[in-house]
Amino acid sequence: MKKYLILATLLGSVVTFAQNAGELHMRVRATGVVPMENATVGAIGGNVEVTNNLIPEVDFTYYFTKNVAAELILGTSKHEVVATNTSLGNIDLGRVMLLPPTLNLQYHFYPTQKLKPYVGLSANYTIFYDQGQGKGRHAAVTDVDYENAFGYGFQLGFDYKITDKMYWNVDVKKLYMDTDVAVGTTLGVEVPAAVDLNPWLISTGIGFKLF
């Protein structure tokens, strides 16, 4: 429930602000989430592997000027996590759900009447939930706790005009995010890990000018 309240609050804030001035655009996209993971695992050593995922994503862009805009991205993704090459072999840690609201400050260019490329800088706060769930979790693992964390990144993309109020969008983001993980075991020993996720977010979809 908490994650839905966060999404509703963010969405309400964007719409309320945009109704007072400027333009508000919305995009509906398919986004591939591709983690480039690396980890330092405590006493048992090893690394981690995190699965890719394809998710639906909604974003809202508010234009302060013709060139400068802020984009808020809303989406959630599911990933399976395995600790690999540890002293105990490979250990399935189950799944984890990520809710990473991301805010991008963008600069838009207008080289032609239809093509509008842009660049952006990203800031996000990643919330982890349903941690360590799933049937695949190793029997020796009692629980997995991921610490929520801030991240940053960059963005490249373009909009291609279809009509005055509709356009095709392609977007690529690179986020740098890390988290501290604590893995509880049936031995009563908690194994810590520092995990860098650093995902690529590769998106395409349709955008609309709302007002």
TrEMBL record:
GO terms for cellular component: outer membrane. GO terms for biological process: transmembrane transport. SUPFAM superfamilies: OMPA-like. It comes from the Bacteria. Residues 1-18 form the signal peptide. Keywords: Signal. InterPro entries: OMP/PagP_B-barrel, OMPW. PANTHER family: OUTER MEMBRANE PROTEIN W (PTHR36920:SF1), PTHR36920. This is OmpW family protein.
